[in-house]
Structure formats: C-alpha cells, structure tokens
C-alpha cells in the first residue's frame, strides 16, 4: 500500500503534503462509482430509454467484441483476474505490515491508506459494472417487452398437462442420446463441449426468431468458459456466473451433464444483457430446447419439468407423483446423480453464497432476490399459453 509518511532517509511513500491530494483522488473515483449506481436508479424510471439506447445498442457494441477477445483464451480469464488481484493485495498488505513493524509507517496511516485504495478499486469496479452491463437491470420485465398478458395462475389440471408434456419430451430427448430408457450410468458430458456451445448459439438464434428478441440477442457471442476452481465456486452454491468485466459466461467444469447445458444457456442469457435470473433461466430453456443437439434439448427439458413439477406438487402432491413415475429410469438416475453432486458442497459456504447473491440481486432491483430463480416457471407457463398450449418450443 502507498504510504503517507516516512521516518527514514529512504522515500517509501508520498510526502505528508501529498496526502490530501492522494485521498481526494481515491475518494473521487469512489464517488464516480456511487454516481454510476445513482444513474442506474434514475434510469430505472425510464426503461424505454434504457432499452433503446443501452440494451439494444451501446451494451452489445461493447460486450460482444469483448466476449470474442476473451473467448480466444482457452481458460476463464476471470480466475486469472481474481487471483492476480488477491495476490497483489496480499503483497501490498505484507509490505505495509513490514513497514509498520519497522516503525517506518504509522498504523493509522496504513489503515487509512489501505481503505482509500479499496475505495478507489470499488469505484472503478462499480463504474465498469454498470456501463458494461449493469444498466440492463433497469429494463422493463421480459413479459412486458414480449407484450405478454399479466400472470395468471393455471388450474391444477393445466399444470399437470404441462408437466406431462415436459416429462414426455425429456424422455424422448434421453432416448435420442442413449437409444434406451436407462443407460445404466449417469449421462456423461460431451468431450467436445465446444460442439454443445455452438449448438446453443444456434439455439439462441432460433429463440430470438421465435420470441422476436432484439437482433443483438440473436447474434453469436464468445464461448462459455469452464472454471478450473469449480469445486471452490460450487461450495457457494453457484452453478455458473457471468463476469461483466471480461464478458465471460462461466460454468462449473465438472457439473453433471443433465444440468450443464442449461447452466451454459442461462449464463449466455446474461451475456446477452438479461439481468433477472428468472428471465435468464427461461430464455436459456428456450434456446436449449431449440438447439440442434440432443444434450442441449435434454438438459433444457429436464429443467422445465422440474420447475413445473415443483409447482404441481404444491397444488396436488399425488398428481405430481404420478407424473414423476413416468420419467425414464435413466432420467431418475441422472437427477439422483445431480443431487449427490450438490450434497457434497452443502455447508456454511452455501449459506454465505446465497446471502451474498440475494443482496446483490436486491440491490439491482430484483425484488425477489434469490427467489427469482424459481419465478421462471411463470414465464414457462405463460409461454405455453402463447404458443399453442405446449411448454415445448
């Protein structure tokens, strides 16, 4: 960390006379970051302007090329950035502690200097976050942009019919992959994940045409990245995340195949400017279900049936159990494998990760917080009502 005073002949920090300027510069950067957040709050009052100027024009012009540049790297740049920043901060901390121990720097001076540095970094990250991607949270809800009617809860019979349709479609997708109702082992992930990624990009193009999405969402973006430190990220209950500073869609590198493709499609939704988790899950489902690859369709349809069955179980548990009984044994095996995968990561980290994610979402005007993940079922049901009564595209 930079110093404000020296007690030896060797100059290891700014002169005391430089301290006010040093502090003002760093606080000014933080103030700009706070101003970006306030601009976001104001823009939420004019979502039409955000849609026309930012979401459909400015943001894609920056994010899409950036995603291609970072996509040239065979690894996730976010991990390099985070590790480099942590190492850099630890080096500065070590240097500062050494100076304090040697009485070459006062403790109060060191703490204040470190705080100002962190304030500056926070300001930089806030500015980049909102201008690169974060203003997308100020858009109107997806159902309004698609001009769909207000949410209307279906009756139990309709829920059961939709769930049956989703289960039957998932069964067909499973059979297409394995040529069997039960392969005897969990579905394996493809060796060439790039093939699946390209299929999802085509799925996004088809979803854009079906739903009349903006042209910027139908175009190709950089590939999904597999995280090296997947087990560390999974301990926070996270299956994937979008990193706006590098425009990378990241997913766990060892998650089961039954959910991996849906996670990839979900993060690709964020990459295309979709903020709320419910919207990302729904649009990821449509893209996956329309992708020219059985693994993509399978993962999407298993996701959809899970959403519908959870709602049906709350309304009529026996009816839900009857629908579940129609799943192929292989699908039940895949879902058991998925449950076992996540059980190994349950703990304090999961609780912390959920709390942080909830606070992040609520700060950015997603009122339901982490509860928004489950709201995608409303979009699925409304989609079915708008498209011939079937949840399957």
What would you say about this model in short?
This protein is mainly alpha-helical.
Task: Kindly describe this structure.
The structure is a single chain. Strands 1-3-2 form a three-stranded mixed sheet. It has two domains: 16-138, no CATH class; 142-386, no CATH class. Helix content is 65%, strand content 3%. By secondary structure, the chain is mainly alpha-helical. Residues 1-17 have low confidence and may be disordered. The chain contains 16 helices and three strands. It is globular and about 75 Å long. The termini are far apart. The chain has helices at 19-43, 47-71, 77-101, 107-132, 142-145, 156-178, 193-211, 215-218, 230-234, 257-271, 277-290, 294-315, 317-324, 329-343, 348-363, 376-386; strands at residues 225-227, 240-243, 248-252.
């Amino acid at each position: 960390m930079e110093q404000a005073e020296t007690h030896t002949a060797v100059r290891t920090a700014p002169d005391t006379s430089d301290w006010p300027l040093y502090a003002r510069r760093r606080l000014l950067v933080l103030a700009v970051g706070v101003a970006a957040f306030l601009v976001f709050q104001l823009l939420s009052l004019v979502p039409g302007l955000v849609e026309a100027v930012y979401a459909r024009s400015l943001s894609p012009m920056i994010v899409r090329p950036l995603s291609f540049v970072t996509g040239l790297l065979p690894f996730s740049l976010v991990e390099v950035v985070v590790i480099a920043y942590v190492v850099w901060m630890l080096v500065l901390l070590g240097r500062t502690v050494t100076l304090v121990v040697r009485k070459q720097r006062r403790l109060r001076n060191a703490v204040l200097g470190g705080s100002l540095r962190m304030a500056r970094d926070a300001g930089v990250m806030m500015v980049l976050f909102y201008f690169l991607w974060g203003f997308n949270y100020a858009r109107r809800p997806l159902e309004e942009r698609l001009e769909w009617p207000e949410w209307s809860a279906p009756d139990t019979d309709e829920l059961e019919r939709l769930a049956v349709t989703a289960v039957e479609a998932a069964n067909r997708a499973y059979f297409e992959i394995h040529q069997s109702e039960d392969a005897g082992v969990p579905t394996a992930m493809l060796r060439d994940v790039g093939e699946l990624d390209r299929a999802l990009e085509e799925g996004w193009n088809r979803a854009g045409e079906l739903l009349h999405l903006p042209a910027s969402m139908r175009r190709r973006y950089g590939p999904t990245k597999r995280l090296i430190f997947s087990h560390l990220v999974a301990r926070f209950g996270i299956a994937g995340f979008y990193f706006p500073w590098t425009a990378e869609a990241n997913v766990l590198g060892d998650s089961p195949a039954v959910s991996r493709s849906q996670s990839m499609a979900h993060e690709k939704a964020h990459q295309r400017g979709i903020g709320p988790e419910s919207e990302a899950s729904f649009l990821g489902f449509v893209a996956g279900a329309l992708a020219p690859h059985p693994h993509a369709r399978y993962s999407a349809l298993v996701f959809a049936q899970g959403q519908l069955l959870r709602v049906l179980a709350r309304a009529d548990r026996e009816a839900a159990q009857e629908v579940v009984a129609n799943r192929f044994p292989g699908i039940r095996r895949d879902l058991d494998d998925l449950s076992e995968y996540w059980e190994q990561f349950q703990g304090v980290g999961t609780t912390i990760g959920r709390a942080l994610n909830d606070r992040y979402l609520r700060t950015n005007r997603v009122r339901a917080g982490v509860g928004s993940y489950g709201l995608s079922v409303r979009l699925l049901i409304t989609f079915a009502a708008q498209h011939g009564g079937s949840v399957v595209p």
